[in-house]
Structure formats: structure tokens, C-alpha cells
Write a structure and sequence with these properties.
Helix content is 39%, strand content 17%. With 361 residues, it is α/β, with parallel strands linked by helices. The protein has 2 domains: 6-141 and 287-321, 3-Layer(aba) Sandwich (Rossmann fold), CATH 3.40.50; 149-285, Rossmann fold, CATH 3.40.50. The strands form 3 sheets. The chain has an 8-stranded mixed β-sheet with strand order 1-3-2-4-5-6-12-11, sandwiched between helices. Strands 8-7-9 form a 3-stranded parallel β-sheet, sandwiched between helices. Strand 11 (311-313) and strand 12 form a beta hairpin. Helix 4 (149-167) packs parallel to helix 5 and helix 6 (214-228) crosses helix 7. The chain is globular, with a radius of gyration of 21 Å. The termini are close together. The structure holds beta-D-glucopyranose (BGC). Beta-D-glucopyranose binds at residues 52, 55, 57, 133-134, 178, 182, 184, 212, 239, 264-265. InterPro entries: Bact_Solute-Bind_Prot2, Peripla_BP_I, SBP_2_dom. Residues 46-305 form the Periplasmic binding protein domain. This is ABC transporter substrate-binding protein. It comes from Cryobacterium arcticum. GO terms for molecular function: carbohydrate binding.
Length: 361
């Protein structure tokens, strides 16, 4: 029996085409320049700058969920741009947004250190900055909204170590970390090391993936498979994009069975790989809560209110949400029950048999 559908209001699983230019989006997602439903009459512009589009979350979840929530709160226009992992491009996008007169800047930085200059320009123009998901390394940040990112790494590392010990396949693992310019990547890595290092399982090799590029992760993993062969009994991959690259490398090398591979983001392709047995686990982060919180805080800051933080992180008023492990055993209780995906979206014809075996139907 299928569970009833519990979908988000504006959730579209299809990836919205991205452009390098700023687009103005309203409650209906179009490119017109105003939205209705506001009380003040005047349309207030809010900037949303996201870092890349190879990871599906940004265009499929973060952007539409943020826009939908914000335009439900008042007469807002979202000035949106995706940097495609290019820090210089993001700098220009931020300058354009400030020139367009945004009242608040919601910034998920490609490069947390380089983005400090964006935060400074915004502050010089009295535009509050929300550091969204990734930390901007600046004291000019008004609010930080993310997950407990060190805990993401702890969850990944713990799941992998437990699984390798359970399977008695502890000869060695490789670590495919995230981008060196992303502060989150350092947190994931720190959390994972805190579990893997004392486990006694050797780390054969480790790589910080430039730009979180799945292609670069695949290329590096291919080299490690050649070098270590069967000694490589597990793969720590920091997110589902790099996990996909690693799994493609293992398949291309014809290695069987595929060693346990970790991930993060609960991307649809990753959930399908988990159902099929190609990927071991991922970490589900409730992006709806994150994006909607960002919209609420942007609304408060735009109204001149001071948001009350849930916590502080490095002295910045913050909200840090809780990540959750997903394996084949709890897909229903996590991403399906939470309305992130329907069974139909996961269990396409190609995965029908695997879904039935996993009890998803
Ligand atoms: C995010 C992850 C994402 C990665 C690559 C990180 O900062 O927290 O969810 O997979 O960036 O974009």
C-alpha cells in the first residue's frame, strides 16, 4: 500500500534550467518583476545566490522552497543567481544584486573566504547578509542557517566503520572529501575523521575534490582502484555527487561487489542507487526547513526586525538543523514520510524489482 502523498507546495523534482544571469522570480516562479500578496504595497527585493548546479538540491529544492516561502510572507521579489562553482562569477552576481537594490542578501558561497568581500560590500550598503548552508568567513554576517555539518561527517564515518566491521572487510578505505573552498567540507571531513581515525581501519588515500566535481571524484577514484585493488574495502564520499563519481569508477573497473560507499543530500539518483544496492548510505538534510527558515529570517531582516537565533556558531546568530542517516532500511521513514520524494519518483520501472525487495511500493 502506498502512503498518501505529502508533497511540498512548490516542489518540482525536475531540475530547473540554470543560467549565469540574475533572474527575478515571483510566487509563480516566473521571471516577472513583482509578486502579489504583500501588505506594504512596495515590492522588496531579496537576493538569493547559490553556489552550483551539479548537485541537484539547489535548483530542485533550495531555490523553489525559498522563493515559495518568501513570496508567501509579503510583497517580495527574489533576485536569483547560481554561480556554477565559480567564485569570481558569484562576486559579480552579488555586485549586480546589490546594484539592483536588494534589501537582504542570502548567500551560499562558492568560496567562504573570498565571499568575505561580498559580505563587506553588503554591510557598507546596510544590506544584512544571511550565510546560507555554507559559512562565509566574515564578521559581517547577520545570521547563519545550516545543518550540524560536523555531525554529518560523524554519521557518514560511523555508518561506514560499522558496516565494514560488520562485514569483516576492514583492509582499508579511501576518503573523497568536498571542495577545499567550502567550510562545510572541512566540517564533514573533521566529523568523519573523528570516527574513522580511531577505528583502526587504514585510510589508504584521501582527496579534497575541487569544486565538489563528480567527474574529478571519479577520475581520482579510478586511480585509487588501480593502485589498491581489493585492498580498498570501503569508500567515504562526502556527498552524493562524489559518491556517484566513485561508483561509476568502480563499475568501469568491473570490481564486484561494489564496496560500501557513503554520500549526502539524499539526491534522487542516490536513493535509487541505495535501493539497487550500488550505494550504501546517504545523509538526508531537510532542505525545506533550511530554505523556509532562510526566507523567514530574510523577511524579518527586511522588516528591520532582529531574528531570535536558536543558537550561535562562531559567534554568529544561527539555526543548525539535524541531519539523518538513510540506508535501504529506512527510506520510507525518512525521505518518503517527510514528503521529499514519492515512492513513484524513486521506484521507476528500472528500480521496480529492487523497490519490491526493499519493501517500497
Ligand atoms: C552542502 C552539501 C552539498 C555540497 C556540494 C555543501 O556545502 O552542504 O549539501 O552536497 O556543498 O554542493
Amino acid at each position: 500500500m502506498r502512503k498518501p502523498r505529502k508533497r511540498f507546495a512548490l516542489l518540482a523534482i525536475t531540475v530547473i534550467a540554470t543560467t549565469g544571469v540574475l533572474t527575478a522570480c515571483t510566487s509563480n516562479g516566473s521571471s516577472s518583476s513583482s509578486s502579489d500578496g504583500g501588505s506594504s504595497g512596495e515590492t522588496i527585493k531579496i537576493g538569493l545566490l547559490l553556489p552550483e548546479s551539479k548537485t541537484t538540491r539547489y535548483e530542485s529544492f533550495d531555490r523553489p522552497l525559498f522563493e515559495d516561502k518568501l513570496t508567501s510572507l509579503g510583497n517580495y521579489e527574489v533576485i536569483y543567481a547560481n554561480a556554477d562553482q565559480d567564485a569570481a562569477k558569484q562576486q559579480q552576481q552579488a555586485e549586480s544584486a546589490l546594484t539592483e537594490g536588494v534589501k537582504v542578501l542570502v548567500l551560499d558561497p562558492v568560496d567562504g573566504a573570498a565571499a568575505a568581500s561580498i559580505a563587506e560590500s553588503a554591510a557598507a550598503q546596510d544590506v544584512p547578509v544571511i550565510s546560507y548552508d555554507r559559512l562565509i568567513k566574515s564578521d559581517k554576517v547577520d545570521y547563519y542557517i545550516s545543518f550540524d555539518n560536523e555531525q554529518v561527517g560523524v554519521l557518514q564515518g560511523t555508518a561506514l566503520v560499522d558496516r565494514l566491521k560488520q562485514d569483516n572487510t576492514t583492509s582499508g578505505l579511501i576518503m573523497i572529501n568536498g571542495s577545499p573552498t567550502d567550510a562545510n567540507a572541512a566540517e564533514f571531513k573533521k566529523g568523519a575523521h573523528s570516527v574513522i581515525d580511531p577505528s583502526g581501519i587504514p585510510i589508504l588515500a584521501e582527496y579534497d575534490t575541487p569544486d565538489w566535481s563528480p567527474d574529478k571524484a571519479q577520475e581520482w577514484a579510478a586511480g585509487q582502484i588501480t593502485q589498491f585493488g581489493a585492498e580498498m574495502s570501503g569508500i567515504y564520499a562526502a556527498n552524493d555527487g562524489t559518491a556517484g563519481g566513485a561508483i561509476a569508477a568502480v563499475k568501469a573497473a568491473g570490481t564486484e561487489p561494489i564496496p560500501p560507499v557513503t554520500g549526502q543530500d539524499a539526491e534522487l539518483a542516490a536513493i535509487q542507487r541505495i535501493v539497487a544496492g550500488d550505494q550504501f548510505m546517504t545523509v538526508y538534510k531537510a532542505i525545506k526547513l533550511e530554505a523556509e527558515k532562510a526566507a523567514e529570517v530574510a523577511h524579518q531582516l527586511a522588516q528591520g526586525d532582529t531574528p531570535s537565533p536558536d543558537t550561535t556558531f562562531q559567534d554568529i546568530p544561527s539555526t543548525l538543523l539535524t541531519p539523518v542517516v538513510v540506508t535501504v532500511d529506512n527510506i520510507q521513514e525518512t525521505v518518503i514520510d517527510d514528503g521529499f520524494y514519492t515512492v513513484d519518483e524513486i521506484c521507476t520501472a528500472e528500480y521496480a524489482d529492487a523497490c519490491a525487495a526493499a519493501g517500497l511500493q
